Please model this.
Amino acid sequence: MPEVIHNLIIIGSGPAGLTAGIYAARSNLQPIIIEGLNPGGQLMGTTAVENWPGNKSILGPTLMLQMREHAQHVGCTFKSGEIVSVNFQQRPLSITTNKNEVLKARSIIIATGATPKRLKVPGEDDFWGRGVTSCATCDGAFYKNKPVVIVGGGDTAMEDASFMLRYTNDITIVQIGDALTASAAMQQRVLNKPEIKIIYQSTVTAIHGDAHGISEVTIKNINTGKEQKIKTNAVFVAIGLYPNTTPFKGQLDLASNGYLIVKNHTQTSVHGVFAAGDVADYRYRQAITSAGAGCMAALDALHFLENN
Model:
């Protein structure tokens, strides 16, 4: 039986991977999409999405289901499972899944995304996507004139706090250290702002609420052990993300923060291997920018295949 070599394998099924699949399938590349452990990506854990063009408001899982159906309609083939290892040192490129299946391809698009770091406290999982989120830009508008808590002391936390000033004047930053770790420029965005309160040397230990959403959080001082409860309707977790790049270590060039390094928008360090979405983007982290990168990666893969 002759060896099957696919034109294109797309690893990941969030906005980047599915958009790449749509463009690739319409170019007759017959792409294979490996769905990963979390099919649909981060939007599967959100409620209303109100910044996706053409939809005034749409549930995250609904949007991803529609994108998946679109990709399937135009000719994408889906495979369940995740990638555990790859071999990009020889041609054809090969990947191995957690089902011990080895797939080979002429080109590959990596769209495995990133996973938000969690607080791992009671209530977090219950309210994730319903008041607990890692994206103030995505969800901030839902909390106009409401109290919010931002956990973290780095640049992302300062960015979130600064962004939320357009919606509310009741913002509390909870930072585990005795000082902010953000750059001086980012700190200046929030320091001395009367709308923003900073609680140092503390951490959120529990998130409380009911069917209507979050009502308060428990905050514990890590030195004294003293706890306090403050009212809030949202918790923005800004303690970082893990780019899902583990299978690619030693195979592709990674930045010091673990993200894939790309040049010319989507090209990785191996010819014919492209990246799209949050696996390479630690700045914008939006569904729409991931989808745009998926489009670019598919067009770049098409160009690569036409010339090789």
Observations:
- Helices lie at 15-26, 60-74, 124-127, 136-139, 155-164, 184-187, 287-307.
- The chain is about 25% helix and 30% strand.
- The chain has two domains: 5-115+242-307, 118-237.
- The domain at 118-237 is CATH 3.50.50.60 (FAD/NAD(P)-binding domain).
